[in-house]
Amino acid sequence: MRKSEFFVIKVGQCDTCKGAGVIQHPDWRDYWEKYRERFPHGPRQTATGLLAEQDFHDDFWRSRGYDYREPPEEIECPDCDGKGTLESKVPLAEALAALRELAEGVRECGYE
């Protein structure tokens, strides 16, 4: 007969979204990168400059297949499904060792 194993659920912050539950849409990240390349000092505040900015905007999104409306700038994090946290199964012995280490750190700081 196999020896029983015990586990606990560890809940930690999602590294991808840093706990926010959302990330910037990849197309928007590309948009802003190309925007800064095209307009390093921002568009000129003239009719020509503003039209150039609008043309850039429209051309970029059309090239990505968005004819009438660009996607939202933030989307649900695909790694945590928008929760901001991830759950993982941890062996009980590992969890207890982490708790002992945490308790020792607290005692060293003078909190008991």
Descriptive account of the structure:
The protein is of the alpha+beta class and 112 residues long. The chain has one domain (9-108). Helix content is 42%, strand content 18%. It contains three helices and four strands. The strands form two sheets. It has a two-stranded antiparallel ribbon. The longest helix is centred in the middle third of the chain and has 17 residues, at 47-63. The chain is elongated. The two termini are 42 Å apart.
Count of helical regions: 3
What is the number of domains?
Answer: 1
Helix-strand pattern, N to C?
EEHHEEH
| General shape | elongated
Main pleated sheet: 2 strands, antiparallel
> Number of DSSP strands?
4
Mean pLDDT: 91
Separation, N- and C-terminal Cα atoms: 42 Å
Biggest sheet: strand arrangement: 1-4
Estimated helix fraction: 40-55%
Unreliable residue stretches: none
**Hey, roughly how much beta strand do the residues contain?**
15-25%
Estimated structural class: alpha+beta
Task: Specify Rg, calculated over alpha carbons.
Answer: 24 Å
Layout of secondary structure:
Elements: E1 7-13, E2 22-24, H1 26-38, H2 47-63, E3 74-76, E4 85-91, H3 92-108
Antiparallel strand pairs: 1-4, 2-3
Kindly summarize this structure in a few lines:
By secondary structure, this protein is an alpha+beta fold. The chain is built from 3 helices and 4 strands; from the N terminus they run E-E-H-H-E-E-H.
